[in-house]
Write a structure and sequence with these properties.
It contains 5 helices and 10 strands; from the N terminus they run E-H-E-E-H-E-E-E-E-H-E-E-E-H-H.
Amino acid sequence: MRVHRVPALDGILRERGAAQCQAVRQPLVDTMGLIATISFVGVLAQLLGPAPPGDFAVRIVFGQCWNDSVDTRRQVFTRRILPEDVRTVRIQLSEEQRTQLYQAISAVNLFDYPEQFTPPLSTMTEPASEYEIEVQSEGRRHMVRWQDYGSSAPEANRLRDLLIALHGIFTALPAVKRLPPSRIICL
């Protein structure tokens, strides 16, 4: 089984013993034009745990500069191209991709985050990305809302890395790749 790993999550993986894994790095350009590096690690599934439960679903709103949202239960990805132009495509995740999502969310202990996440700030970055992530798993449902002003707190870094990694997974799907980029200017 091949599973994606993002270098920013290395600390989480080291805690689980994955630092010795061989990795192949491949650049992936996200919708903001930034380069994220995704590593393919064959043993991640064994290190992070089991496959997702049958009720596992994720809904994420990548706000502000991203203008994307995804709902795995409804199997849709939505992008706001312009304020009056919103496009939605159907997505189909493989069992491997569902497992990848489940493991990434489990690795950061998302259910331990408060509903309104406000980590301490040493500096403030504007514009701030806005996120909303809702997860259902094993009969539990949990939502985390966060306006990311650039906190360097470990919990903020883990959540930011998770959301960037998940955005990369979804934007790599063929149906999403066919969408035009958002033309909303982020100020």
